[in-house]
């Protein structure tokens, strides 16, 4: 069953041909002539996947985020290992947790039937992330298109670039700044954790070592995630509405019920507290800033023009 749309729904209009961080240009109508049905094909593929498993929306959004933070939005995360490189799928943040590859492959297959060798995997991933958020009740935004796919990937780059759940606020701010993203972007985009799950091994230290955790919430989590073992047991990042995109994540932070250390760092008596409180009481403000942040995120260092390639199979270089 389709999750109801949220009360607030925003469409962020971005100028066609908006300049990206790399100076290259993406535009929303890039495929208007050579693949005019692209957007409905991707939307249909996302809807099919989320009808089967709503959690997949969070997985596709995360896949796009983890792709863009490692050498730009170039679909490098989709590449399987080869004899020439060890890719990103076994990096610490992705190993046995990154998922949704099959959904992107299915959508790519449908797109290839309609317009062979035209649309990049990177563009499909960017669209799928947006469509997932909208399907789960969140805001929409215009997705600039024209990215091309990388011909390599790097596990070490992924390990160095994707923010870990153990990071302090200072480290998080620096990590996002390295991608050209502001403190507002950091807080708003962290709101993506209003959907999805996390593994016990990623929140164990928070619930056993940190003092800023609600006692009853801590006790409940400790009953499921012991000090050792059960590493891959999953809990909802937003314990209230894990498959609905809303602002309850921020309310959880104010209540000291963040699942991850890095999330609670955003509300811990420091510079980002006021933004968290704003989003906790104002869904419209959160949706607007999240949409703006996603536009910036999806424009990180795209390959355009003659750089890269249009992969036929998202998991393999042509």
Structure in words:
Helix content is 42%, strand content 3%. It contains 13 helices and 4 strands. α12 (273-281) packs across α13. It is globular, with a radius of gyration of 19 Å. The termini are far apart. The model is unreliable at 1-23 (pLDDT under 50).
Q: What share of residues are in beta strands? A: under 5%
Main pleated sheet = 2 strands, parallel
Helix content: 40-55%
Count the beta strands. Answer: 4
Element-level helix/strand string: EHHHHEHHHEHHEHHHH
**Number of helical stretches of at least 4 residues:** 13
- Identify low-pLDDT runs: 1-23
Instruction: Give the termini separation.
Output: 38 Å
Give the spatial strand order of the biggest sheet: 1-2
Overall form? globular
Arithmetic mean pLDDT: 93
Gyration radius, to the nearest Å? Answer: 19 Å
Which structural class matches the secondary elements? mainly alpha
Search tags:
single chain, 318 residues, mainly alpha, two-stranded parallel sheet, 4 strands, globular, disordered N terminus
């Amino acid at each position: 069953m389709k999750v109801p749309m949220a009360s607030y729904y925003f469409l962020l209009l971005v100028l066609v041909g908006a300049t990206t961080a790399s100076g290259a240009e993406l535009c929303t109508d890039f495929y208007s002539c050579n693949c005019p049905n692209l957007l409905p094909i991707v939307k249909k593929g996302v809807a099919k996947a989320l009808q089967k498993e709503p959690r997949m929306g969070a997985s596709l959004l995360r896949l796009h985020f983890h792709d863009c933070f490692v050498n730009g939005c170039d679909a490098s995360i989709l590449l399987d290992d080869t004899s020439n490189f060890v890719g990103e799928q076994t990096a610490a943040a992705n190993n046995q947790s990154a998922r949704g590859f099959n959904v992107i492959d299915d959508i790519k297959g449908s797109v290839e039937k309609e317009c062979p060798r035209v649309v990049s995997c990177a563009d499909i991933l960017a669209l799928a992330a947006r469509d997932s958020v909208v399907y789960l009740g969140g805001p929409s935004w215009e997705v600039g298109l024209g990215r091309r796919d990388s011909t390599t990937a790097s596990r070490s780059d992924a390990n160095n670039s994707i923010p870990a759940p153990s990071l302090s606020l200072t480290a998080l701010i620096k990590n996002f700044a390295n991608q050209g993203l502001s403190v507002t972007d950091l807080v708003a985009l962290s709101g993506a954790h209003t959907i999805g799950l996390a593994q016990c091994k990623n929140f164990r230290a928070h619930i056993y070592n940190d003092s800023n955790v609600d006692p009853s919430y801590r006790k409940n989590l400790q009953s499921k995630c012991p000090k050792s073992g059960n590493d891959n047991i999953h809990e909802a990042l937003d314990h209230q509405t894990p498959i609905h995109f809303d602002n309850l994540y921020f309310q959880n932070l104010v209540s000291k019920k963040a699942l991850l250390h890095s999330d609670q760092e955003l509300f811990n008596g420091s510079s980002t507290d006021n933004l968290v409180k704003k989003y906790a009481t104002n869904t419209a403000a959160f949706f607007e800033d999240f949409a703006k942040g996603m536009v910036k995120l999806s424009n990180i260092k795209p390959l355009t023009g003659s750089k890269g390639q249009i992969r036929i199979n998202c998991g393999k270089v042509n």
